[in-house]
Amino acid sequence: MRTLIVSAFVSLDGVMEAPGGEPGYRNSGWTFKDVAFDPAAYELKGREQHETAALLLGRRSYEAFAPVWPTMDEFAGYNSMPRYVVSTTLDGDDKRWPATVLRSIDEVRRLKEGDGGPIAVHGSATLGAALADAGLVDRYHLLVFPLLLGAGKQLFSRTDKDATKLVLVEHEVYNNGIQKQVLDVQR
Questions:
Q1: Is-contact 127 118, C-beta < 8 A?
Q2: What is the pTM of this model?
Q3: Which residues cross the membrane (predicted)?
């Protein structure tokens, strides 16, 4: 069974929308516009590329990343590993950044049940919430920013369900106030 890791930049109030400057959100770019840069805070992001074996994205994140990530040297690990995108609307993948299209959460479950190393989910708020609601998330890699953003896409769903217990396995606070939180889902 493969480990499924949801990795996210998130505000203290749970917003994960447009951290890198994506258009259409009032606080777009909040990770670099509103918090001083500290390279130490991003060590986890580099480590993820060495510790994961595949990348899983929702359609909107895939379409946003496909024209950009293949040109970025800092994403060489992700660019060389297998990629999967969950979508009911994509006809095929983007030739600039090929990925296997999965049509449902059940297909993700089958991928997770197969052989191989950990699978990382980046961005993909809707997908991440659906995976958590389906009980497929094993770990969270969070960089929690000292901001309250109010409205915006949330990391966690608002589904009425039993409590999900998490175990904090790694934590660090950086000079700029960002907190690294690595949490395992307790089953």
A1: no
A2: 0.95
A3: none
Phi, psi of 42, deg, nearest 5: -100, 10
The closest alpha carbon to 34, from 20, 24, 53, belongs to 20
Tokens of 25: 């959100």
Q: Which of 19-23, 93-97, 183-187 has the lowest mean pLDDT?
A: 93-97
Confidence grade of residue 140 (pLDDT, cut at 50, 70, 90): very high
- Count of Cβ atoms closer than 10 Å to residue 184 Cβ: 17
In terms of DSSP bridges, do strands 166-173 and 179-185 run parallel, antiparallel, or are they unpaired? antiparallel
- Residue where the block lists tokens 């950009």: 68
Q: In what order do the strands lie in the sheet with 179-185?
A: 100-102, 83-86, 54-58, 119-122, 4-11, 139-145, 179-185, 166-173
Distance in angstroms (rounded) separating the CA atoms of residues 52 and 55: 8
| Contact assessment for residue 131 and residue 2, using Cβ atoms and an 8 Å cutoff | no
* Phi, psi dihedral angles at 174 (to 5 degrees): -105, 165
CA-nearest of 108, 115, 118, 113 to 57 is: 108
DSSP structure string for 45-86: HHHHHHH-SEEEEEHHHHHHHTTTGGG-GGGHHHHHS-EEEE
